[in-house]
Design brief:
The protein is of the alpha+beta class. It has a single domain, classed as Aminopeptidase (3-Layer(aba) Sandwich), CATH 3.40.630.30. The chain has five helices and eight strands. Strands 1-2-3-4-5-6-8-7 form an eight-stranded mixed β-sheet, with helices on both faces. The relative contact order is 0.15.
Amino acid sequence: MTTGDWPPLPETIHTPRLLLRQFSLADAEDVFAYRRDPEVGRFIPFRQPFERRHADVFVATQVLADPCERCVWALEQKGQVVGGVSLELDRRMARAELGYELARWLWGRGLMVEAASAVIDQAFDRLPIIKLTATATAPNVRSTRVLEKLGMRREALLRQHWVHEGRVLDEVRYGLLREEWKELPAANSEP
């Protein structure tokens, strides 16, 4: 398969505790509920204070995302959207970049590793990518732990690379190569 004829990724992915599905405009209230928490936006570049109108714009952007360039899934648990996962696709370089967010009341339960792992498996199973990348700010220890639990390796420290709400922060870049993914214990398993 060449990089020009990539198949679409599934619109829904089931994990033991989550449903990953396409966003709908009706999800704005749920997004507002978790994104208005300043801790959720501490290391994610979205406006604080987060208002309901910002949730409407965010959800509309997710609904209108071109799946040839950016695949997005809402994380649903018990009928409520509690976060999201995205993949930015770079067909020319045969890579994808992972992004994610989760409601604070669910942090520390392994849900993001569960969701992101399912997305990574779909990406490597279905797309001709050679590498998957992700970034986090250096002080965002929770996020770097997620990336490490996903089997990603720290590749770079970009000093004073990220400015958010007046703070200048270092950024860390992680990567996972296709051959490394094949060696992971859960790789190639059905979600």
